[in-house]
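Reminder: ligand-aware prediction takes two inputs, not one.
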Amino acid sequence: MSSPKTIRWGILATGGIAVTFTKDLLVDPSTRGVKHIKHTVVAAASSSSRSRAEQFLKETGCPADAKAYGSYEELVKDPDIDIVYIATPHSHHYQNAMLCLDAGKNVLCEKAFTVNAAQARALADKAREKNLFLMEAVWTRYFPLSIYVREQITAGRIGPVARVFADNSMATNPEEAFHDGKHRLVNPDLAGGALLDLGIYSLTWIFQTLYLTQPENQRKPPKVLAALKNYSPTKAADETTTIVLSFPRPEEAGGEAHAIATTSLRVATTPGSEAAAPPGIRIQGPKGEIQVFPPAYRPTRTKIVLNDGTVEDKEWPQPGPGAGSGWYNGFGGGKNAEGEGHGMFWEADEAATALVEGRKEGKYESLAESIVIMDVMDEARKQGGLVYPEKIETTKYPTQL
Ligand SMILES: NC(=O)c1ccc[n+]([C@@H]2O[C@H](COP(=O)([O-])OP(=O)(O)OC[C@H]3O[C@@H](n4cnc5c(N)ncnc54)[C@H](OP(=O)(O)O)[C@@H]3O)[C@@H](O)[C@H]2O)c1
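Here is what comes back for the chain with NAP:
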């Protein structure tokens, strides 16, 4: 067997998810049975200062010779970088991804991909023009759990999917938790609100079960009906959004299929104990349903319940360096068990594999699908009257944010 190919990453931004991603990225891939690639971090950049980038490299355990930059512009000029991971707020993804692509860098860009579909289309065009890899970092799609769910569907376990319910909501008191209005969940300048931040996962589950599982030439965009409640203190950011989707399908594939995507900053998918959590995702067909338990973005349990009485409950623990390693990861104050990965390495493995194979898009979410999902979010915002400031909706590049 040939030796693993090492992919050299540059990390653009040093906030919460950049830390979680980079720690996962540096876990030995053989701990999850991946032998053909390895990852290393050769540089990180912070828009605030070089010293912040230095601190980030230390905090995440990057190699001692990794370079620290005090601007994103310097990072994208680094000739040693194969691919840049973008971890800024979604308001900034378009400008940052354009910067990378223009400089000839492959890109893995955090979700939501962009603020609107026009920006997503412009990025896809630029990546094609430059012959570069570009993928939205919807990590959940690359989990073995997600692959299993899609396989159960295409194997016909529940029959043609007829309906999907998908919720991703977190109970906060936003007025208290984000009282100064600056947090990215409520700040219009950062494309705040539930839809782009949390609702993307509800849509991810609907799309990966109802759309991606269809033959490529049969996938059609859904009709959309949406209700959107604005968060009154900062005006342009949604607090709760509900979307009804109707997917056209050929009669022989089951005909029209429905889905409901819900998301909220104020009410929870799981009130109280995680142990008693109801499934946040229910994928239903004529023979039964597949349930996925919360959280929608990092699920670790599935259940298949069939009309014939079959029940298959499965746990999907995240691999990692293991107990006794003294290594920890987590996000936003949450800490996983010792040695347990967060699960962000799966998407990094896919991006690295694509580079090795010369592919320009991700295997489980094409750019065309990211664009259709952005179209759905645009339509939900249009029906709900949610418009962000022009400087973050624009496709004009460069625009100073
Ligand atoms: N996949 C997941 O599970 C997951 C989880 C959370 C968030 N996310 C996504 O990741 C992105 C970042 O989220 P986060 O939680 O990491 O946010 P965060 O902690 O606020 O970090 C964002 C970073 O972006 C940089 N930045 C540049 N311009 C900024 C500006 N005007 N305001 C704020 N930050 C700015 C800053 O880094 P520098 O100062 O170093 O430039 C900042 O630390 C969002 O798109 C979010 O949806 C994904």
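The CA atoms of residues 186 and 192 lie 4 Å apart. DSSP finds eleven helices and 14 strands in the chain. We will return to this case in the review session.
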